[in-house]
Amino acid sequence: MLEKIWLSSPHMGGNELKYIHEAFDANWVAPLGPNVDGFEKDLESFLHADVKVAALSAGTAALHLALIECGVEYGDEVICQSMTFSASANPIAYQGAKPVFVDSEKDTWNMCPAALQEAIEDRISKGKKPKAIIIVHLYGMPAKMDEISAIAEKYNIPLIEDAAEALGSKYKGKACGTFGRFGVLSFNGNKIITTSGGGALVCHSESDKQHTVFLSTQARDNAPHYQHSHIGYNYRMSNISAGIGRGQMEVLNDRVNARRKMHDFYVELFQNIEGVDVLSESSADYYSNHWLSAILVDERITGKSREDLRLALLEENIESRPLWKPMHMQPVFAEAPYYGKNVAENLFERGLCLPSGSNLEEEDKKRIQHIIEKVFSK
Q1: pTM of the entire structure?
Q2: Closest C-alpha to 242, from 192, 301, 196, 311
Q3: 354 — phi, psi (to 5°)?
Q4: Distance between CA atoms of 282 and 288, rounded to whole angstroms?
Q5: Of 239, 143, 151, whose CA–CA distance to 195 is shortest?
Q6: Phi, psi dihedral angles at 359 (to 5 degrees)
Q7: Cβ neighbours of residue 333 closer than 8 Å, sequence gap 6 or more
Q8: DSSP designation for 111
């Protein structure tokens, strides 16, 4: 069987073991230690926005704590981008709150500002002003942050940025994850850098960071015995995982450049294939890390569907995946309100994510190119 070409596999830089060995040598393996502090500082420096970062066990944990910090409670409503992975919406349910889903727009595939405003006004008219807004920078492509931020400010609703896929992406020169009241990062194994599993919450004050750390370490009160006045969580990142992160931060810019080159590879590959569009920046305001390169296939023009391409790649042991199935189409959220038209549904029906790893070799690209050209030449 041909060697597997993955959609997005981990890519080690080489210095991760140095930080892990330091942690073992010092016996710092708990959810605190020099690597955790150092990884947080590395991220703060990279984001260039005078932010404070709390390293956590997962991006989902970061989003859950962001909702808690925004005061989301049982019965509240939270607006969430529909076109996203379920981890963007699940923490709403953790709080006993209810998601309200909003459609995408065609330029970035992210939350549509017009549909967002419609949703807010309608929920307010029904006596349920949303408690927070969760936007997502899908596949690393920045959302329309000027419009979305202005709407959130107009209605005084805190904005949470799910930048799990967008570390290294920028909107008008400013790092994704630094626009909202809180930003969420992920270091899952398939992300642009990884700590094997992990995430972080981006805060705009030291007090918010310290309260996040407090909640993420079981909310233990300052007492000689174990005393708890708040519900806490076991969400802090370990010193071992943070050591991997420190090594990965040393090569983050290289990883972004490599992903962007994979995007350029697909742009060139599809430029002469009519009916296939590659998700790309619509203007110089947007700078995507292109965590995943994604395409839309118009079967009416190509004569082939995205599923035809996916199966042809799979037959050659090359992984590709449909876009995220929108949350308002998921059985678990079937009863949730939804605002918009059919942009997200159309994207899901036509869209495909292609292998985008920073560790793909020229031979891998040739295999991918051969299958794509074979499918669309028929």
Answers
A1: 0.96
A2: 196
A3: -110, 160
A4: 11
A5: 239
A6: -105, 15
A7: 89, 99, 101, 327
A8: B
